[in-house]
Each structure stands twice: as C-alpha cells, then as structure tokens.
Design goal:
single chain, 165 residues, mainly alpha, 0% strand
C-alpha cells in the first residue's frame, strides 16, 4: 500500500509516462479530444481512489490502458453521448499523408481501429493486445489483418507494400 507521498509520486510518474498514450487510445474510441482527455482524467482519479499496487511498470501501463478502454466504452454507452452530434476534429496541423492515414484509421470499426492503434502506434504485440482487449490472440491477428486490408482499400498502396502507420 502507498502512503500519500508515494501515491502522489506514482500518479505523477504515470501521468508523465502514459497520459499521451491514454488520450490517444481514448480518442481512437471516442473520436473527440475533449472526451478523450476527460476519460484520461477519470482513469487517474480511479488510480488515486483505488490505489492499485503493480508488479512492474508494464503491469501499471496495462492497467491504465485497460481502464482507459473500459471508461471509453462506458462513455460511448451513455445516453448523453449517443444523442449528441460530435464536432469533427481539426487535424489540419498534421502533415497531409499522416492526416489521411489517421482519418482512414479513425473511420474503421472499433474492433479494427483499437488493435491497429495499439499495435502500430503503441508498439504492443498481438499477445499483449489480446490480454488488454480480453480476446484470443488469433482473433486479434484477424482484426489486424482485416483492418490493414480495409486501410489498403481506403488509402491505397503498392501491391507488395506494407502499410506503415
């Protein structure tokens, strides 16, 4: 168990290390930066309230990502979220190619979008994604393959070229 100082330091370190990744993951679900930031704040509030003890930094990161995914899904289920008309995000600050790829990724169904984000943007293996998403590794592999095929159809590419996200 943490004392108050250790807990504050642990949260501060996690905030520095993982907050940007958590915002990106929440954004992949919610497609709105303000909502993604709100979910990330809620995750850190939960961290402070529950005071979880982790085996190592990878365990901590996995807990934060899993909690971010769960809270994002919860937000998607709320009546308020379903009834509103989301304002499209302005991605004009990104280079043209990166903007096109991100728009294509965001247009995918979440069962493809989230594994692609975790694999290509966060660097997780299929096995790690399977644990995080509570799915079988073979299923995650299928989602990645189908997501890549959909992206190839959307943004094109050469016949033998791998999609680089």
């Amino acid at each position: 168990m943490y004392n108050s100082y250790e807990l504050n330091e642990s949260v501060r370190r996690a905030l520095d290390l993982y907050s940007q990744s958590m915002i990106k993951i929440a954004f992949a679900y919610l497609k709105n930066i303000a909502d993604a930031e709100e979910v990330t704040q809620e995750v850190f509030l939960t961290y402070l309230q529950k005071r979880p003890v982790f085996e190592n930094s990878e365990h901590e990161k996995a807990w934060l990502i899993r909690t971010t995914i769960n809270k994002s899904k919860n937000m998607l289920k709320t009546g308020w979220f379903k009834s509103r008309n989301p304002v499209p995000e302005d991605l004009s600050y990104l280079p043209k190619e990166e903007n096109e790829v991100l728009q294509a990724v965001l247009s995918l169904d979440k069962k493809y979008r989230i594994p692609i984000h975790l694999h290509y943007y966060e660097g997780y293996s299929i096995q790690e994604i399977a644990v995080i998403m509570q799915a079988k590794a073979a299923t995650v592999g299928t989602w990645l393959a189908r997501g890549r095929a959909l992206l190839k159809d959307k943004i094109g590419g050469l016949e033998n070229e791998e999609i680089s996200l």
